[in-house]
Amino acid sequence: MTSTLVTGIGLLVTHDAERSERTDAALVVEDGFVAWVGDAVDAPVADAALDVEGRCVIPGFVDSHSHIMFAGDRADEFEARMSGQPYEAGGIRRTVRLTRQATDDQLLANAQRLLAEARAQGTTTLEIKSGYGLTVEDESRALALAATLTAETTFLGAHVVPDGITRDEYVDLVCGEMLEACAPHARWIDVFCDTGAFTVEEARRILTAGRDAGLGVRMHAAQLGPNPEALALGVSLDAAAIDHCTYLTDADIELLAGSSTVATLLPGVEFSTRRPYPDARRLLDAGVAVALACDCNPGSSYTTSMPLCIALAVREMGLTPVEALRAATLGAATALRRSDIGHLAVGASADLVVLDAPTYVHLAYRPGVPLVHRVPTF
To answer: Residue 244 forms beta bridges with which residues?
Structure first.
């Protein structure tokens, strides 16, 4: 076994239940896992050392919602929205056409570019969805490519109904031949259950089929308007996360608070679509588990920056800096039902980020500034 002592840590955030933050701290990494955490003066001897010279060290960001397996660009749609045109889910079909035309090499190169962008900004775990192929061949190839980049792959054949097929025929396809081809490359199944996408009954059928095929359940819901039936469906199926949750009723919040389902909030979407931000403060105060994610996609949130999402959550959604950091790390790990990431307690994966700042507060205090000094590999 090889070990590395990370020392000179001005502020260390572990999210450990007993002591979440330490000053003048150190930690030891052995074979990729945190083996010891404590005060620098008590640090044990290790095979190698990394001195971070008083910087803040945090867990790597966990981005639990992305759509980076795509081709093309929709900057013109963004420009139109900034001129007053409302966001509509139908723009997804434009990306579908371009993605189907792209080669495997082109899709993989674009996803690798975005993954590198995300890592440079502190993301150490990234979930990747399909959803821009919407044929058996294109969905399965997207997931096979995504599986070369991450263990967190999600089958989102139920993104929208593509052109040239009826709703009933497409739902049959998603639940049958497409699911059979995609399940070997996926850990999760997801459905966009909202206006212009899939109904609650369609979502029930698709998610149940995916669950029966051994996939974990996730949902897009309540992005474009209130959707209590969709929230109830997700909770009843023990969804790991329901994502967006922009429009929630008091009953929705009570339901989430009494469940193991995480509400994943995606502030990059509200920034890019000029829709109201979800009230994260209301969720946390009610006892709902909250995650933050980027939702990187070419239509409604073309960002890979978790620091931007943290800044937006603090400024626009009512979270404190430490709550936003926790949502972007430990909360998002919970949304992936992972206990090995999102924190730096003993036994966790050594996914850590060194900030070029004395405290994580600077992530919101200095928005837009590249504060990630280093993302070490061990």
So the answer is: 221
Fold of domain 3-60+342-374 = Urease, subunit C; domain 1 (2.30.40)
Homologous superfamily of domain range 61-335: Metal-dependent hydrolases (3.20.20.140)
- Which residues have CB under 8 Å from 108's CB, separation 6+? 145, 148
Domain boundaries, the chain: 3-60+342-374, 61-335
Provide the residue-wise pLDDT of the chain in tens; the chain has 378 residues. Answer: 799 999 999 999 999 999 999 999 999 999 999 999 999 999 999 999 999 999 999 999 999 999 999 999 999 999 999 998 887 666 888 999 999 999 999 999 999 999 999 999 999 999 999 999 999 999 999 999 999 999 999 999 999 999 999 999 999 999 999 999 999 999 999 999 998 899 999 999 999 999 999 999 999 999 999 999 999 999 999 999 999 999 999 999 999 999 999 999 999 999 999 999 999 999 999 999 999 999 999 999 999 999 999 999 999 999 999 999 999 999 999 999 999 999 999 999 999 999 999 999 999 999 999 999 999 999
Structure tokens at 72: 């093309």
- CA 175 remoteness from chain centre: 25
- Reported for 246-249, long-range contacts at CB under 8 A and 24+ positions apart, including other chains, are 246/222, 246/270, 246/275, 246/276, 246/277, 246/278, 247/222, 247/223, 247/278, 248/222, 248/278, 248/279, 248/283
